[in-house]
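Exercise 7 asks you to align residues with tokens for two separate proteins.
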Amino acid sequence: MATTAPAAPVAHVAAVQGQAFARGSDGLLRILHVGDPVFDGDVLVTSDGSRLELASADGRAIIVPANETLTVDAEVAGFVTPDASDSALSVAGADINKVIEAINRGGNLDDLLEDPAAGDSAGADGGPTFVRLLRISEGVDGQGFEFDPARSAAAIDIPIDPILAAATGTTASASAPPSAATNDAPVLSLSPVPTFAEGSASAGLAVTTASATDANSDPLTYSLNNTDGYYAINATTGLVTLTAAGAALVNAGGDLPPVSVTVSDGLASDSESVSVPTTMDVNDAPVLSLTTPPTLSEGAASAGQAITTASATDEDGDPLTYSLNNTDGYYAINATTGLVTLTAAGAALVNAGGDLPPV
């Protein structure tokens, strides 16, 4: 079975910086290293920040800068070169004299060329009569170019070969994604809390007002930790008020717990707590009661005989003192125990058959 001889390389890799690749005519992609052969028809690709230098068969250096794609063909490799048959004007023999004469008299050399004919007509040597530029080979310093800064500053989307993208980690676009905006948490503050007096509170009485600032100008919502049910809050204005349960606690002389408020912009929040001053107590009058007095008999009364006993309760737990209105002098009272007794004058009134006045 006959085999096809492998194609001869048209160049070799002389130097490589970064990563460079070659895709052969079979479609396979290979990474290039120094000394690797390059064949006619190879497509060379350099990645970002790389540089590839080839040495052609005729000794020329071929430079492929970063982010470039180059198809290696006869003209790039340099094994097709122009010869005398490619010239548009033969200057051998008598023709050279015509050229010199035209130059001396300031004539136009174009007049020496044959007129082009329509169609695919051939010249005298069998080739076409038009001029064909085969190749311009010139070393160029990339820093010698001036680029439009406005154009270079703009992001340009460049389609990337998926095979190269997988090999080099290149993204499908040169455009940078926009930066994500950062959300700032709102900052909360609470107004001072007033002092509540026992017996004067009512449901809806203002406790404090929450206010907040937000750097992103997001809509804000207020809430509170109200496990005891003593407070209510307006989610929009931040006004905190007493509930019926809170008012009842104050009116009974109880102390309210601290107010804990939270403000949120939907993504972040801030919380503050403020203590409520101790409820200002109001003195409550003691409540007095008297035992039923006995029936006294004429001639049987005596000084010190018990008439009634005063007793009292006090909500505030204050020490109590008992006294009586004794304008006639018939009664006496123990200021501590509240025991009311007959005086000698009272006993004498009873024993004489008189009636005692009310105590």
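Second protein for Exercise 7:
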Amino acid sequence: MEWILIWLAFAFLCGIIAPSRGRSGPAWFALGLLFSIFALVALLALPRHDMAPKMTDAEAFFARKAEREGTTLDGTPLHKTCPRCAEEVKYAAVVCRFCGHEFGEPQRDDTDRRTRSLYADRRRD
């Protein structure tokens, strides 16, 4: 009888510890019922599972600003319009995937100017 209580105790421990490590409590409780102490050892051996990295308020602000403007954080546009078929393609594309139009290489000075202006905006905000 005491073995069953110990078995259940390990299952409850798995269910209680799992959410604090970013895992599913009910799923780890079930694993604890099946594998007892082995599930607890596995749970403790696994690294913490963070769903998303935390962003500071400033990082979140600039990420939202870049998303609104259709650019990356460094000021590079996400898309460009093909002059032949008027479809949007990725900014880094060399050939349009819709019509085969070949773009010239992006100008480095233009990107550097946008990057400098982005950082100037950050200093002002």
